[in-house]
Amino acid sequence: MIDLRSFVRAGDGVWWSQGAAEPTPMVDALIDALPDIGPVRAFVGLCWNPRITDDPPPGLRLVSYGALGDLRHLPDGRLEVIRVPWSGLPALFEEGRVGLDVGFVQVAPPDADGNCSLGPGIDYAWDAAQHTTKLLAEVNAALPASSDAPSIPYRRFAAVVHTDRPLLEVAERHPRKADAIISDHIAALIEDGDTIQIGVGQIPSAVLSRLTTHRDLGVHSGVVTDGIIDLVESGIVTGARKEVDAGLVVTGTAMGTQALYERSARAPFAFRPVSYTHSPSVLARFGRLVAINSAVEVDLTGRVNAEVRGGHYVGAIGGQADFAHAAARSRGRSIIALPATSGGRSTIVPQVGIVSTPGGDVDYVVTEHGVAQLRGSSPSQRARRLVEVAAPEHREELDRTIRAAIHASA
After folding, report:
1. Under a CB-based contact definition with an 8 Å cutoff, are residues 11 and 116 in contact?
2. Is 352 exposed, middle or buried (0-12, 13-18, 19+ CB in 10 A)?
3. 4-163 is classed in which CATH architecture?
4. Homologous superfamily of 177-404
5. In this structure, what is the dihedral angle of CA atoms 138, 157, 15, 70, given to the nearest 10 degrees?
6. ∠ at Cα 316 (53, 202), nearest 5°?
7. Beta pairing, strands 13-16 & 79-81
8. 115 exposed, middle or buried (CB, 10 Å; 0-12, 13-18, 19+)?
């Protein structure tokens, strides 16, 4: 294993690829070397590495754009969150607001031209690599190379470690009853020829399984899952009517099973960095973009909290704000989906404490109790429609909130 003491110094800013693309051997080597190196500041995205999430070493100061994966289980004070939509990450890297002294990436072996593919995990890694002083790589023989994507020259790496291991798999969980009902509502809002963006989780997986009678769907999304590749191979997702990148599934990362990683390398997938997938100028070119995202809670004005529950970070702004904004301004739809209750509490609330997505960028809020159409609605209509999709046992309390507001403004 590589000795990182030659490359990382105390006080350095370190980052690495996220999710299934995490170069775990490099991260583990960093943790092992910290007693000799001294404290470092590490920027990390979605993470399931137990050495980071279960018992992070005291010398590792963790920074992220949110608390995704098992980062949400970190105790308070162990994670510094930079509140930024994904479209803002490239600027943070370019301006040096995130330490980029040393970067770790996982890549496929070099091709005939000496270039290494980031495979199904390019997202923010390629953008960060452009501004990183020292770049180190895990060259994984099992990483499927993506030919239609930016790559990194092998000579760019200050050091490499060679592996041959499967990528981390993310098993899809069976949707709950409420998720299945919500998914049926959402599927009815999607039209043939739409270009969709969708996240990960039980509801998005269930939504994809409900699209088997649709035609000529397109995909432009920060992440894709097994459900997307199934729709591609069944001829549902063709991208034939996309205004941008017709015929291609454009994404930054794949997150699912080993079969997804292998199949995506053979399918019409185009892996692109976040500076492209979430670019406002690119998203503005779509005429019918449907953004489907989840939330922790939504308030009676339609504002969305996708980040904090009970004062603790459990999510991120992520790409939701980028895609919701673009979809709401297209002839498509910006959809927020969530179960009506969580832990016995209503997820439709009088007022959210933190705003991840403004209410003006939300067209529909969907729960198992129905669909609240907010697009073109007045503030009072928004509030009433949101109460109608709240859990029945919480509607009276929400109604009282509305009446109190009316009385106060009279």
Report:
1. no
2. buried
3. 3-Layer(aba) Sandwich (3.40)
4. Acetyl-CoA hydrolase/transferase C-terminal domain (3.40.1080.20)
5. -10
6. 80
7. unpaired
8. middle
Residue pair 350/401 in contact (Cβ under 8 Å)? The answer is: yes
Alpha-carbon 49 to chain mean position? 17
Strand ranges of the sheet holding 364-367, from the earlier edge strand across to the other edge: 269-271, 249-254, 218-224, 195-198, 289-294, 333-337, 364-367, 370-373
Structure tokens at 331: 């002839």
Predicted pLDDT of residue 406: 66
Three-state DSSP state, 48: coil
Handedness of CA 337, 289, 316, 203 (dihedral sign): positive
- Residue 154: the pLDDT is 98
From start to end of 255-320, where are the E strands? 269-271, 289-294, 297-299, 304-305, 308-309, 312-313
Question: Two tokens at 60?
Answer: 């590792």
Gap between the Cα atoms of 61 and 68, Å rounded: 16
Whole-angstrom Cα distance, residue 167 to residue 199?
20
pTM: 0.95
CA atoms within 13 A on the CB side of 287: 6
Mean pLDDT per segment of 10 residues, for the chain of length 410 residues? 92 96 96 96 95 91 96 93 97 95 98 95 96 98 89 97 94 82 97 93 87 97 93 97 97 93 89 97 98 96 97 95 97 97 96 97 98 96 97 96 70
What is the predicted pLDDT for the residue at 105? 98
CA distance 8 to 5: 6
- Residue 173 makes CB contacts below 8 A (sequence gap 6+) with 202, 205
pLDDT of residue 306: 96
SS3 content of the chain, % helix, strand, coil (to 5): 30, 25, 45
Question: Are residues 215 and 240 in contact, defined by beta-carbon separation less than 8 angstroms?
Answer: no
